[in-house]
Write a structure and sequence with these properties.
The complex is a heterodimer of chains A (119) and B (258).
Chain A lengths: L4 H22 L14 H18 L2 H9 L6 H14 L4 H14 L12
Helix pairs in contact in A: 2-3, 2-4, 2-5, 4-5
Chain B lengths: L2 H25 L14 H18 L2 H8 L7 H14 L4 H14 L9 E9 L6 E7 L10 E8 L8 E7 L10 E6 L2 E6 L10 E5 L6 E5 L6 E4 L3 E3 L5 E3 L1 E7 L4
Parallel strand pairs in B: 4-12
Antiparallel strand pairs in B: 1-2, 3-12, 4-7, 5-6, 5-8, 8-9, 10-11
Helix pairs in contact in B: 2-3, 2-5, 4-5
The chains are: A mainly alpha (119), B alpha+beta (258).
């Protein structure tokens, strides 16, 4: 190896170590100004549960869909179904699962874009 | 090390730093995943709080609402919810949303809300892994369930410290406790408006006010009351120096006792 390359490689490694130390230890990433679509699965499920609880009394499907749209680009019933799966796996109370189920059933009545309505 | 020996080292250092930043910013930038509600942007946080209030309005589960609000560190829940209710009312959000926020703010401060005849308790076992405990509901007897509120006092107020003439409303229940979240409808010749008690918790949870214009006569109805209060118009008051200013009205509503 050329004697000139040794300090170059040493500097390269030191630079990388400095960059990583700065990024991971001195000033690690802080999660601020995030959006609901980045929520962890349990928080996301609780979000959908809140929507279903509110829907139970408001009976406003448009509002429920609008609230679920904050979670991402999937159809709203997809989020409700995912929340039911998580709730069943996590032993949520029967009331909670029932509320989620009612919301999912209601959301499935909304025709998806491009879907042709029934007779 | 000879002076010329530093050059490759510094060059390597610079290249290393540049490579690290290029990798972390361009090739593989940070993706926000698995975040908690506390890190949400302000507008999404406001929507999240409104959703907590809407869920509370539906189920009346204060324990669960508290658990959800606890996800937001450095938050004064009652004050923040009341302020949010005022902002959303001013920006024309649905009244149901404003009311839910006001009611939750009041409930967090231990105040009764209109028609609140339920006592909620939580079971000891939370529903894992959700951060919210599973509630059970029990209905407590109430001596006056749904009893309409009545106007107990109607007073003219001459207070030079008030910046403008206003209709001030105080609502209390049968136990003389202030009632937050009570809806008030005010009507005048050319329009109407709604507001809620409890949006200014610093003035009392059962308090609400409405700014009056000179020369306009208002009528007011508490949504939980049968009667309409009419003939509310500004009037003249004078201070100690004889200076004239416009006076306000104070209306006190109470729920009849058993």
């Amino acid at each position: 190896m050329s004697p000139r390359l040794t300090p170059l490689l040493l500097g390269l490694i030191a630079g990388l170590l400095l960059g990583l130390s700065y990024g991971w230890l001195v000033r690690p990433v802080e999660y601020v100004d995030t959006t609901p679509d980045s929520l962890r699965e349990d928080f996301r499920t609780d979000y959908v549960l809140m929507v279903s609880e509110a829907y139970a009394s408001e009976q406003d499907l448009d509002l429920a869909s609008f609230r679920l749209a904050a979670l991402g680009p999937l159809p709203p019933d997809g989020y409700a179904t995912a929340a039911i799966d998580y709730a069943l796996a996590g032993s949520f109370s029967r009331d909670d699962v029932e509320a989620l189920n009612q919301l999912a059933v209601a959301l499935r009545t909304i025709p998806r874009s491009g879907e042709i309505g029934g007779p | 090390m000879r002076q010329s020996g530093w050059l490759p080292l510094l060059l390597g250092l610079g290249l290393g730093l540049a490579g690290g930043l290029f990798y972390s910013w361009i090739v593989n930038p940070v993706e926000y995943v698995e975040t908690a509600p506390g890190s949400l942007r302000e507008d999404f946080k406001a929507d999240y709080l409104a959703l907590i209030a809407a869920a509370y309005a539906s189920r009346g589960d204060l324990v669960r609402a508290r658990a959800r609000l606890a996800l937001f560190e450095e938050l004064n829940p009652a004050g923040e919810l009341a302020a949010l209710a005022q902002r959303r009312q001013a920006s024309g959000h649905p009244q149901t949303e404003v009311r839910a926020l006001a009611e939750l703010a009041a409930a967090l401060q231990g105040a009764p809300t209109p028609g609140s005849t339920e006592v909620l308790s939580a079971s000891a076992t939370p529903a894992p892994p959700s951060p919210t405990p599973t509630p059970t509901r029990t209905r407590a007897p109430s001596a006056t369930p749904g009893a309409p509120f009545r106007l107990a006092a109607r007073e003219q107020v001459c207070d030079p410290l008030l910046a403008e003439p206003m209709i001030q409303v105080q609502v209390s229940d049968a136990a003389s406790e202030p009632v937050a979240g009570a809806e008030v409808l005010v009507i005048w010749d050319e329009g109407q408006d709604r507001f809620f008690t409890g949006l200014k918790p610093e003035l009392g949870l059962g308090y609400a006010d409405f700014s009056m214009s000179e020369g306009v006569t208002y009528s007011l109805q508490l949504s939980a009351a049968d009667e309409l209060t009419t003939g509310l118009a500004t009037f003249e008051c004078s201070d100690e120096q004889g200076e004239m200013y416009l006076g306000s009205w104070l209306l006190q509503f109470e729920q009849p006792g058993p």
